[in-house]
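anyone seen this seq b4? input:
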Amino acid sequence: MENFICVQCGTQFGETAEPPSRCAICEDERQFVRRTGQEWTTLERLRADHHNRLQDEAPWLLGIGTEPEFAIGQRAL
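predicted toks r here
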């Protein structure tokens, strides 16, 4: 069982044997699904070529992101 992650928006889903048939986030009218369709990955696959980056943004403010950028490129502050 895997927790599949939508490659387009970065949402992680609950454990399943197979990737979900769709991503409700990407199918929302404010978002879109790529022409090539839905694509999925797992945390294990992401760890092979991505890592977290911690960066001081200001005194007492730390930014956390993923490199290379993944999905919509969000960062936590």
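The mean pLDDT is 94. The beta strands are 2-6, 12-16, 40-41, 51-58, 61-67. kinda curious what u guys think
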